[in-house]
Amino acid sequence: MYSFKNDYSEGAHERILNALVESNFEQTDGYGEDYHTERAVQILKDKIDNQNVDIHLLVGGTQVNLTAISAFLRPHQAAIGADTSHINCHETGAIEATGHKVITMKTDDGKLTPSLIQKVVDAHQDEHMVQPKLVYISDSTELGTLYTKAELTDLHNCCKKNKLLLYLDGARLGAALTAEKNDLTLADIAKLVDAFYIGGTKNGALFGEALVICKDELKEDFRYFIKQKGGLLAKGRLLGIQFEELFKDDLYFELAKYANNLAIILKNALIEKGYKFLCESYTNQQFPILPNEVVKKISEKYSFNVERVIDENNTVIRLVTSWATSKEKVLEFVEELNL
Amino acid sequence: MYSFKNDYSEGAHERILNALVESNFEQTDGYGEDYHTERAVQILKDKIDNQNVDIHLLVGGTQVNLTAISAFLRPHQAAIGADTSHINCHETGAIEATGHKVITMKTDDGKLTPSLIQKVVDAHQDEHMVQPKLVYISDSTELGTLYTKAELTDLHNCCKKNKLLLYLDGARLGAALTAEKNDLTLADIAKLVDAFYIGGTKNGALFGEALVICKDELKEDFRYFIKQKGGLLAKGRLLGIQFEELFKDDLYFELAKYANNLAIILKNALIEKGYKFLCESYTNQQFPILPNEVVKKISEKYSFNVERVIDENNTVIRLVTSWATSKEKVLEFVEELNL
Amino acid sequence: MYSFKNDYSEGAHERILNALVESNFEQTDGYGEDYHTERAVQILKDKIDNQNVDIHLLVGGTQVNLTAISAFLRPHQAAIGADTSHINCHETGAIEATGHKVITMKTDDGKLTPSLIQKVVDAHQDEHMVQPKLVYISDSTELGTLYTKAELTDLHNCCKKNKLLLYLDGARLGAALTAEKNDLTLADIAKLVDAFYIGGTKNGALFGEALVICKDELKEDFRYFIKQKGGLLAKGRLLGIQFEELFKDDLYFELAKYANNLAIILKNALIEKGYKFLCESYTNQQFPILPNEVVKKISEKYSFNVERVIDENNTVIRLVTSWATSKEKVLEFVEELNL
Amino acid sequence: MYSFKNDYSEGAHERILNALVESNFEQTDGYGEDYHTERAVQILKDKIDNQNVDIHLLVGGTQVNLTAISAFLRPHQAAIGADTSHINCHETGAIEATGHKVITMKTDDGKLTPSLIQKVVDAHQDEHMVQPKLVYISDSTELGTLYTKAELTDLHNCCKKNKLLLYLDGARLGAALTAEKNDLTLADIAKLVDAFYIGGTKNGALFGEALVICKDELKEDFRYFIKQKGGLLAKGRLLGIQFEELFKDDLYFELAKYANNLAIILKNALIEKGYKFLCESYTNQQFPILPNEVVKKISEKYSFNVERVIDENNTVIRLVTSWATSKEKVLEFVEELNL
To answer: Does the keyword section mention Metal-binding (chains A, B, C, D) (predicted)?
Structure first.
């Protein structure tokens, strides 16, 4: 049984493991006050081409989302997200647990638009309702789709006009930035959003997400929030070492590109067989709509998640590739499909 | 400069690193639903000699404390702790951030007693005050001291009588259980408290704490709380692998014993020089009271934390040893002291 | 300008004012431990025909909702409500501020059904999502509609099957219970739901809502929650005196019936003019769909709220009557409509 | 049995009741957007001699404290209070329930000093601890004592120096401002603190506290917080009418002065008998230390609260007078004492 279930099924890229082994007996200060973290942060600032951002390394994505969003909002303020957004669906109410409503809008492709945001703002105008304050988007989205530079610029302008914060969840930012149709860079993103994070867990690290705070007003005292929410790793160096390794050259992008390429092989094979998709993805998550008998057949050799039941006969499944996915297994899958 | 600052200055014991490397390309399910975690949990249940406990592996201590305590308490209930307790002093209000007061009592040695607890209970008798419900203790304590089996039994009885939960923070449980004056076992603890955790971070792991829930009523739905608080590690296997390695034989106890032994060397040397201590510790944290000129002198070659200023001329410092501390450096320190 | 804006525009029924004046110099204990409150609670238990319920008197509806729901749920649990439900729309995220998600379902008439609830339950099956636990309904609803005994029984059964709590917001319970199509009694409701409240503010009191807790497991320590959320009125007698007066005979029901009757006069006049309604209401809130020029015309003499813009030419307004509404003004409104 | 238990045992001053009766059938907008509230706010601004403050009328003191403090603080920030402070002792953890620690300092007289505050600030210097941000004081204090203008100025300066907010709980501000040794005015307070409230419940109103926000940065969106915490009274006019009546002339001060005078009669009689007091109070709360047999004897005819057991033979009781206390009963009490 080979797994296309997700992009965190294996450990870490060997360069990361090597770096951990090599640095193992260095004595460093705890809680991210070590030189590996310092170096990783500097490398990231250079890659982002912005020395003015604040960067914090945390262990996981839900942790970053709940820490950042609860730090950025005042008690009466709410986040706006797509109904498919991770904070709405798969974080066990983590944002609400910090006291904030998540207002959701229905979308076909997991992407928010200025017009959807404006509707929310227009419907919340007095103190009997929460005050929408932060727009949460993901790139790539939970459905594998992408924001273009033009779209992100429009969101930026919409947020600016309405005094909203724009926050980008980059759990799969590597997949987004290396996708065929992408035209965004890290530097663009840092200019267009108020905060975002660069996901390591799903792209070759053992764990780790780099939160980038662009807007000055959001920076103050941020380490307090990390500590309070239980996210300040004692051996913070482990985060530093991993991001150093991922970004000191282009390893991060190479790993993501590799995953995307394998996903596109799967996608093309499925297209050739005439299958449709839930929405168009150029990244490492593909959501084909398959007849149930096909789903059953491939489930004999491969594991994956069911996304949604479409009707009696058809099901949307999710196929995910990663830096660790075997190309051989992908080709084998394609072959099986054609039998 | 050699550091006696804490027990999380280095990476991990090499057996742990090796285990991570060896298992690296296994595909496993995420979020702790992998066979390494399953095995680690089984090994721990055997060591604890209790198949009925629930065990969850989390990344860090503050995370365990806030997740467990907020899961165990209803909104109007409070924790009781020593004024030096970690949840009171060094977790940035993490417990209060989940809505619960921490009621503190002054102690000399960081240890709660039935009489201190009873005072709190007696002073909180109606709905205009919080309801004390959970007693938080640490073993070894934040001051390096220990609970004896008799003392823990008394606390257990006091809690039972007052319908209080007894929770033990075992960030340094290895140090406690392998200390000279200790007479407790993991099995004893599991019988006497309602929940406790076995700390990995400060005893040879990269990170990781094993929460053991003994009381049935506290077990339900616990994974929801871990996820909601951002503590459900995507690659949960990393926790499983580490605890497997630490407990499949006696590595965990050997590492702790090693650290304690080095601390006792420091302690004895300091005693010989006539110095007194903040309180009597048999574990890997020692709190000598030193003349300021001695503090100054040793700070030239060694780093450590200042615990407290006693008076104009004397300061309490904290010296910490760990599985990774160099015996050579300890002996060198002793030698310097005698110059 | 005469107001049909809401049912809390005036003070209180004169019998309530008289009772306050008469009792003014009695010395009583504070915080609801007085004999007026005791008597009011006993009278309510008799009216509900259930001596086993717990009853607490609070000042306002949002206060009751947030206090009760946060007391009843554990941190990972969520409430389910109609998208039009008061807790979702008009309480500034009060429920989320206590840490709990409100899962909403779209409805036409503001009423939840077993099938809508089942959909939510089926979509929330693991610890990566919140756990739906409490069903929030209002009777009469925010759109003026009613639950029948059969419908409430179905909801009761659906909740029982899915281990959900059923909670009824009775801010306008008087209007519901005295409406033409109603077949529920206070005693029925106490049998079918786990907790509900009887609204005084919108039916003749200066303020005050009586929370009735039917399910034993929800009763423990409830006064702690009221105090913690700021809802324990120092002069709790004010609540006792008002509920005593409203329920010692049938004043509460008479006032509600009066308000409903006036609303039906408005409704019938609007029907006669050929106007349609957002949904069919037999209670004191009517939501006619009116041409904009009609809206404009009546707004010259009457104030009311706009509920929703339907299209370029038509608007839904809300007309509300109360115990204090002038019948003369209602007839005048009808007359104006016919000019 | 006559009660000296507290200052909220009776209803309201008759002028307040009359005002409620007279205005009863006026139609007003809800939620404090009525002209009575508008007028009351203007009258208060005039009395405070500051047109720039924001004033909000709420129902009760715990509600004001939790709403204001949680609105003013960011998640990692804490309040500092005396160990006897109301938010620490008698609000069921209301502040912690909003996520914030209350750091307490031991005092003899219920009063904080710059030196106590500085100690707290000095002990909280990094992100592993909460950040002290708001100083909570009461005037008169929970022990009946007063702040002088010099003392409040010192606190103001200490807070300014340490970037702390200064918040004054005025549940018994009337008693403070009309006490013999007082040299503060409403205008002074508004200049020296960042926010405070003027208590109505304990000085002649049915209920009601007027929160005065002096610092501009704390004003924004405040009505959202009131609504979210359940404190926005539907018939907000009730608050407006009461404060209008209390402050349109000097009724508020006359009532407080009357209560203080009666307390001083009690105090002097007790002094004459040779009894000592817990601390020196010039306000309507007196805390004499009495032999147990005296306590027993007076408890036959009078009810009061026991504050503290001093030793085997002596007890501190609390005697409270109010606007409604009978002078005759006070004199009778004095007479009994002398028998």
So the answer is: no
Quote the minimal CA–CA distance from D101 to chain A in Å.
Answer: 12
CA distance D75 to D130: 9
- Above 90 in pLDDT, residue C312? yes
Average pLDDT, chain B: 97
* pLDDT over 90 (residue C102): yes
d(CA A240, CA A236): 7
Task: Please state the rounded mean pLDDT for residues A210-227.
Answer: 98
CB atoms within 10 A of CB C14: 12
DSSP letter, residue A140 = S
Query: Where in the sequence is the domain holding A315, given as residue range(s)?
Result: 252-338
C–D CB contacts, 8 A cutoff, strictly below = 146
CATH number of the domain bearing residue A204: 3.40.640.10
Q: What is the pLDDT of residue B319?
A: 98
In a domain, D7, yes or no: no
Regarding whether B193 and B296 lie in a shared domain, the answer is no
Structure-token pair, residue C35:
């004999």
Does the pLDDT at position C339 exceed 90?
A: no
Q: What is the pLDDT of residue C338?
A: 84
- Sequence length of chain B is 339
The structure tokens listed for A173 are 């930012």
Angstrom CA distances, A84 to A87, A107, A198, C282, stand at 9, 8, 20, 38
A99/C97 CB distance under 8 A? yes
Cβ of D70 under 8 Å from any chain A Cβ? Answer: yes
Put simply, the answer to whether C91 touches A128 (Cβ < 8 Å) is yes
pLDDT digits (tens, 9 = 90+) for A30-54: 999 999 999 999 999 999 999 999 9
> Which tokens in the block code for residue B311?
């008076």
Mean pLDDT by 10 residues, chain D (339 residues): 97 98 97 98 98 98 98 98 96 98 97 98 96 98 98 98 98 98 98 98 98 98 98 98 98 98 98 96 98 96 95 97 98 91
List pLDDT tens digits, range B71-89: 999 999 999 999 999 999 9
Strand-pair partners of A199: A209
State the pLDDT at residue B338: 84
Rounded distance between C-alpha atoms, residue A24 and residue A91, angstroms: 33
The verdict on B228 and B97 lying in the same domain is yes
- Tell me the C-alpha distance between C282 and C256, whole Å: 12
Residues 6+ positions from A198 with CB-CB distance below 8 Å: A44, A170, A173, A174, A186, A209, A210, A212, A252
Rounded-to-integer distance, Cα B242 and Cα B258, Å: 19
Asked casually if ipTM beats, i.e. exceeds, 0.85, the reply is yes
Report the length, in residues, of chain A: 339
Distance of alpha carbon D17 from the chain centroid: 23
Listed by number, the residues of chain A in 91-120 with a beta carbon closer than 8 Å to a beta carbon of chain B are 91-94, 97
Contact list, C100 vs chain A (CB under 8 Å): 93, 96-97
Q: Mean pLDDT in chain A?
A: 97
Q: Are residues D141 and D245 in the same domain?
A: yes
* pLDDT greater than 90 at residue B339: no
Q: What is the DSSP letter of A193?
A: -
Q: Is residue C6 part of a domain?
A: no
Tokens at A302, concatenated:
């491969």
B235 and B272 belong to one structural domain: no
* pLDDT confidence bin for A339, thresholds 50/70/90: confident
Contact between B31 and B56 under an 8 Å Cβ cutoff? The reply is no
